[in-house]
Every structure is written in structure tokens, then in C-alpha cells.
Amino acid sequence: MTKRFDVVGIGNAMVDVLARCKDDFLGEVGVEKGIMQLIDMERAVDLYGRVGPAREVSGGSAANTIAVVASLGGSTAYVGKVKDDQLGAIFAHDLRAQGAVYETALATAKQKAETGRCIVLVTPDGERSMNTYLGVTEFLSPDDIDPAQMADAAMIYLEGYRFDGPESHAAFAKAIEATKGAGGKVSLTLSDPFCVERHRDAFREMLRDHVDLLFANRDEICSMYETDDFEAALAAAAEEIEIVACTESEKGAHILAGGQRWHAPAKPVKIQDATGAGDAFAGAFLWAYSKGYPLDLCGRMGCAAASEVISHIGARPEADLFEIFRSDGLV
Ligand SMILES: Nc1ncnc2c1ncn2[C@@H]1O[C@H](COP(=O)(O)OP(=O)(O)OP(=O)(O)O)[C@@H](O)[C@H]1O
Ligand SMILES: O=C(O)C(=O)C[C@H](O)[C@H](O)CO
């Protein structure tokens, strides 16, 4: 049966505030390198006051992924909450302008917080250290999930970060039920190793019972299966999930499915800002998968898209990804 949407994503809606800094600065402001830390508004204001010149660019992990699918011509929708404020307007504009359907109700006046933002500190090696003020995106609830939209999705894409919220688990459960009930598939990204630490039990249940396609990076999958042995973690994931797509930074990505395994090499690039590498990988992979490309090509397109995104500041693609795939001989 043909579905209206190739992919519907659900996640934390936010705008990135990206600033370059030296490694020493991370220590001075108490930021741990390479991970995502949750912060409150007071800390967001303080940190913002201490960083150098910054750029605001729409972000949100699943939203970045959906933007990539949409940029490739895929049919997409996104669910994530913003407020009727300046950052909320920027976020909504950029997603819709990219071609995604975005209809989530704005936060109400009672929900006393602002649109989420992520202060991203980018060190000279291109690594990104993220400091997330969730704001109203935390209030995403089952009421925001339209079962008809989920039923019209060939695949839904759930963001692990969104597990940090009181009603998000119920929202995800509602989305999964509607999608699977209509014969659609479920994909999940583990998002961050510390996010896995916080929600390991919930992730475990979801992987075992619902997830058809898993996205993770090396640290996340090792954290998920509580091992330092990457190969053991990959094997454990492949045992319970139909398709596993695991990235490994400059070593590319590993795809495991049906007892087979492929390696997609990373595409060499001068890395400017690693923000959104995994998001772009997932977006291109999901697009290629939805168009029926073999899994090894899905992985290669994922790496090519990630390479484009990390070649500049900001987590959304700036070049025509389809043209890149064409010139790389992938499509
Ligand atoms: N130094 C690099 N050189 C080339 N490609 C890279 C490099 N780092 C990352 N990539 C590309 O990005 C993909 C995802 O990288 P990684 O495993 O670091 O994901 P991630 O940690 O989830 O990213 P992020 O959380 O920043 O979005 C890799 O599979 C690879 O294709
Ligand atoms: O912290 C979150 O929930 C995020 O989604 C952070 C994103 O990875 C960040 O906005 C990247 O664009």
C-alpha cells in the first residue's frame, strides 16, 4: 500500500546557537567535550553571555534528519514542539521551506518556557559539545501525535533525546501503535551515550519489541549493550533488530541485516563542525532505503551526506545532496 509519507520524525524541536571556541574554554565554562548536556535557562543565558560570536541555525536531531530526507525529495513530516516566539518561527520556517509537513500545535501560554535551543561549542578539531535547554519541546505529549499521520508513514523515526520528557514515552507508544497497526516500520536513534545511560531500560524494551531499524554511533551502541567490545555490541544489536546502521566517525558506518554485513567508508573531508553528522547520515540512509536502494548504498549515501554537513558550520545540508550522490556514482 502506498503511504503519503516516506518518513515521519518525532523529536526535540530547537534552534542551534553555534560558536567556535578553544579547547581550554570548555574547561573554563564546565562543558564536557563531545556530548550533549541538558541545561536550564539560567545556565543558557550565562553560557551565551560567555561565548564569542555565534550563529543561530535550525537544529534538533530528528528535524535535521527529516530536513535531509526532504531535501532529497522524500515525502516527510515532523512532530516536535516550539513556542510562538522568534526561535520557534525560525525553526518552523526552515523545516517547512525544506518541504516537510510540520503541523505540531504551538506550546500554550500555560507552558511557561521558551522554544528550545542548543548552545553548540565547536572546538578547532571540529568536535561539537552541546548544551541543550529543552524549553517547551519537553511538553510533547500523546495529544501531539496524530494517529492518521502515523498510519500514513512508511517509517517513523524516533529521537532518543526525546526520552527526556515526562510524556514522551506515551507519545512514542501512541505513534508506534498507529504506525505498526497500519503496516509501517519503526526506526530509532540512540542519540547520545549519556542519553542511553538515562533511558537504557526504556530503550531496551523498545529495541526488543518495536524497532525495525536502529541508528547509533559506536559509543551509543556500546553503552546500550553495556560493553566496551564494539563487535559484541554490534552482534547483540543485529540479533534483535532487523537492520542496524552504526556509524563510527572517520571509519564510516557498519550495516548489519539478515546475517549479512556491509561497511560504508567515510568520505574524507576537512571537518569544520561535526554537529549533525549522525543526523545527516540517518536522513540520507532513510531516503535511500525508502526508495529501495540496497543497504550498502544506503550506508554510502549516509556517509556522503554526513561529509557534506560536517564540511561547514550548522547541521543542515547546504549543497544539493542528490547531485553529490550522482557525482559519487551512488545514484
Ligand atoms: N572525521 C570524519 N571524516 C569523515 N567523515 C566523518 C568524520 N566524522 C564523522 N564522519 C561521518 O559522519 C558519520 C557519523 O559520524 P559519527 O559516528 O561521529 O556520528 P555522531 O557522533 O552520531 O554524530 P553527531 O552526534 O555529531 O550527529 C560517519 O559515519 C561518517 O560518515
Ligand atoms: O539536544 C537535543 O535534543 C538535540 O536534538 C540536539 C541536536 O543534536 C542539535 O540541535 C543538533 O542540531
TrEMBL record:
<dbReference type="InterPro" id="IPR052700">
    <property type="entry name" value="Carb_kinase_PfkB-like"/>
</dbReference>
<comment type="similarity">
    <text>Belongs to the carbohydrate kinase PfkB family.</text>
</comment>
<dbReference type="Pfam" id="PF00294">
    <property type="entry name" value="PfkB"/>
</dbReference>
<dbReference type="InterPro" id="IPR029056">
    <property type="entry name" value="Ribokinase-like"/>
</dbReference>
<dbReference type="InterPro" id="IPR011611">
    <property type="entry name" value="PfkB_dom"/>
</dbReference>
<keyword id="KW-0808">Transferase</keyword>
<protein>
    <submittedName>
        <fullName>2-dehydro-3-deoxygluconokinase</fullName>
        <ecNumber>2.7.1.45</ecNumber>
    </submittedName>
</protein>
<keyword id="KW-0418">Kinase</keyword>
<feature type="domain" description="Carbohydrate kinase PfkB">
    <location>
        <begin position="46"/>
        <end position="317"/>
    </location>
</feature>
<dbReference type="GO" id="GO:0008673">
    <property type="term" value="F:2-dehydro-3-deoxygluconokinase activity"/>
</dbReference>
